TrEMBL record:
Domain of life: Bacteria
Keywords from the UniProt entry: Isomerase, Magnesium, Metal-binding, Phosphoprotein
Amino acid composition bias (Basic and acidic residues), ranges on this chain: 1-18
Cofactor(s) the protein needs: Mg(2+)
SUPFAM superfamilies xrefs: Phosphoglucomutase, C-terminal domain (SSF55957), Phosphoglucomutase, first 3 domains (SSF53738)
Protein name: Phospho-sugar mutase
Classification via CDD domains: PGM2
């Protein structure tokens, strides 16, 4: 290791760092000569991709901090001025969640835009990510930045970029922005306007409550049943995030008076004191929600993640027990509900991802709706919806990804956990009026379109050695795809790296199985993990109790998972 060169790079960065806290942090690391820590902080610049930036807070170019955000914003501003002629008229929206340093990072973002002559439409208080996405369209802004790390642990923060069409950026925008960032001067030389200077020049515009009110009106208009319920009991958790007040108001306005918040998690708190990992999918994250639901005998539990762009759902089964629905089950419920109960459209269009269940596609074909599968990430869903509408006149009505992301209609062009929670409550009230339940409705769908069960397994492999192992596993499955998995024949192999399926190249491999199942593997885009997605389809026999069919399906799914993980170990995955 060239420690002299590393020290020189670190000292140069420290001197250009505009934040005294991270300056002192880096000085402390240098004083201790902690070369391993320094090497990690300076291994690379935090990569700007199609999700923007996301990383651990701290000093150095491979961390999230004020220096990185100032340089990133300068690059984004200059790219916008080079590619969007009216950006200095339309401006850029700036929103933030309630995480540590989110306020400072958002203020730096607005200050840089203002100094570049681009009006910054700034939310003065924390807002859900979908509110920022909505504001792009509502204000006809040229772009937006949302400072958030979504459902990552408290030591993270991030920087998400939206284009003027309201969707997250996709190539070539991400590459162009990254190239512009690389040319930006050191952080302490990036021009800034203070809030007072920006306001005086009309370049820092604090957004009024009218924007949030317009968002609430837009999601209230997504309901299909529209009658609410005085008897349906709902428990809601904000998971220490920014969705609490928004969801509470939306549900009240929609006619659901029996909504009980999880009090310990309702207020924004970037420390996330009751959960280590504030993701509703993580073990233990829903424990307080479950306890509250049992105390008030709730029929339905709705959970947002900290920036309120995701939704988790629990509902009672036939035995009265609360059961967590998978992301695919919620997607199937909402998709079928919108297609069958929504306004009849000539060419309704639904979209999901290549790692989500294939069942939405079967439903779409059965109901004569247009359907697409796209790469992982809601940016692809939104952009595909816009593309088909422009080219073919289809009308986008619903999109989802299995990682708890859903959007109904076009109020936002990103996943919306608050809007989805409202439509799920509307669906539950409709079910109640029909004399059934949410899970009873799901059974109706599964009896017609098949019982699809799925699971995901993540293997964490940190560091450079882990990244090398992940690459080796992916290449091994490409070079030698299995002929069968657990005794089930592989009927097709799709390597998305080659652009198969008509999609942009992506490091994903999928094995279609005889009978309708699928195994898909890909590296995570934001964490040091390789992800495996499994799906099995079972057809219940006529008159067969669905729990019996589900038990059989789950057993077959478990066998499929075991067989595939054994193959992965043969190809280099640690035991």
């Amino acid at each position: 290791m060239d420690t002299t060169g590393l020290r020189e790079r670190a000292e140069t960065w420290r001197k250009a760092d505009p934040d005294p806290e991270t300056q002192a942090e880096l000085a402390n690391v240098l004083a201790k000569s902690d070369w391993a820590d320094l090497a990690d902080r300076f291994a690379q610049d935090l990569e700007f991709g199609t999700a923007g930036l996301r990383g651990v807070l701290g000093a150095g170019p491979n961390r999230m901090n004020r220096a990185v955000v100032r340089r990133t914003t300068a690059g984004l501003a200059r790219y916008l001025k080079a590619t969007v002629p009216d950006v200095t008229t339309r401006g850029v929206v700036v929103g933030r969640d309630a995480r540590r340093l989110s306020k400072e990072l958002a203020e730096d973002t607005a200050a840089v835009f203002a100094a570049e002559g681009i009006p910054a439409h700034v939310f003065p208080e924390p807002v859900p990510t979908p509110v920022t996405a909505f504001a792009v369209l509502h204000l006809n802004a040229a772009a937006a930045v949302m400072v958030t790390a979504s459902h990552n642990p408290p030591e993270y923060n991030g920087y998400k970029v939206y284009w003027g069409n309201g969707a997250q950026i996709v190539p070539p925008q991400d590459v162009g922005i990254a190239d512009a960032i690389a040319k930006v001067e050191p952080a302490n030389e990036v021009p800034l306007l203070t809030p007072a200077e920006g306001r005086a020049k009309g370049l820092w515009r604090d957004l009024p409550e009218d924007v949030g009110n317009a968002y609430l009106r837009a999601i209230l208009d997504l309901r299909l049943y529209r009658k609410g319920s005085d008897t349906l009991s709902i428990v809601y958790t904000a998971m220490h995030g920014v969705g609490g007040a928004w969801a509470a108001l939306a549900l009240k306005e929609a006619g659901f008076p029996r909504m009980t918040p999880v009090a310990e998690q309702q207020q924004p708190d970037g420390r996330f004191p009751t959960v280590r990992f504030p993701n509703p999918e993580e073990p233990g994250a829903m424990d307080l929600s479950l306890a509250t639901a049992e105390r008030v005998k709730a029929d339905l539990v709705l959970a947002n993640d900290p920036d309120a762009d995701r939704l988790a759902v629990m509902a009672r089964d036939a035995s009265g027990k609360l059961r967590m629905l998978t992301g695919n089950e919620v997607g199937v419920l909402l998709g079928h509900y919108v297609l069958t109960q929504g306004t009849k459209r000539a060419r309704p269009h639904v979209v999901t991802t290549i790692v989500s269940s294939t069942q939405l596609g079967e439903i779409a074909r059965g109901l004569d709706a247009a359907y697409d599968e796209v790469l992982t990430g809601f940016k692809w869903i939104a952009n595909r919806a816009l593309e088909r509408t422009a080219k073919e006149g289809t009308q986008f009505v619903f999109g989802y990804e299995e990682a708890l992301g859903y959007t109904v209609g076009t109020a936002t062009r990103d996943k919306d956990g608050v809007g989805a929670a409202l439509v799920m409550a509307d669906l539950a009230a409709w079910c109640e009026a029909r004399g059934t339940t949410v899970l009873g409705y799901l059974e109706e769908i599964q009896r017609r379109f098949g019982l699809h069960v799925g699971a995901q397994r993540n293997v964490t492999l940190p560091g450079a050695a882990g990244a090398q192992t992940i690459r080796a596993i992916m290449e091994a499955f490409r070079a030698s795809p299995p002929a069968n998995i657990g005794g089930t024949r592989v009927s097709a192999v799709r390597d998305y790296q080659k652009g198969e399926g008509g999609l942009p190249p992506s490091n994903v491999v999928a094995f279609a199985l005889e009978g309708g199942g699928r195994v898909t593997l890909r590296p995570s885009g934001t964490e040091p993990k390789i992800k495996y997605y499994f799906e099995h389809k079972e057809t219940p026999a006529p008159g067969e109790p669905l729990p019996q069919a589900r038990q059989r399906a789950e057993a077959k799914l478990a066998a499929l998972i075991d067989a595939f993980l054994a193959l992965a170990r043969e190809r280099g995955q640690p035991a």
